[in-house]
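Here comes just one.
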Amino acid sequence: MDNLLSEGLNLMVFGMGFVFVFLTLLVFSTGVMSKLVNKYAPASEPKPQRSKSNPKVQSAGAGAKNDELIAVMTAAVHKYRS
């Protein structure tokens, strides 16, 4: 019985050690890859935002869509509660 328990503990220690070493290497390799990508392929600069040409037309269309959405949501809640 003692032999079986010591083998189990030995297997547990080796298994946990292997996982710890693997995860440590994974963290370091991910950090190195991140630095390499940032060095050789830096992020592109953000595109400038375009100004809205006619905000009244866009807001009127959005208001109609919002009204339709509210009506659909109200009907769904009413059907769910009944």
User: Anything to note?
Assistant: The chain has a mean pLDDT of 84. The two ends are 65 Å apart (CA to CA). The CA atoms of residues 75 and 81 lie 10 Å apart. Residues 2-43+56-81 form one domain.
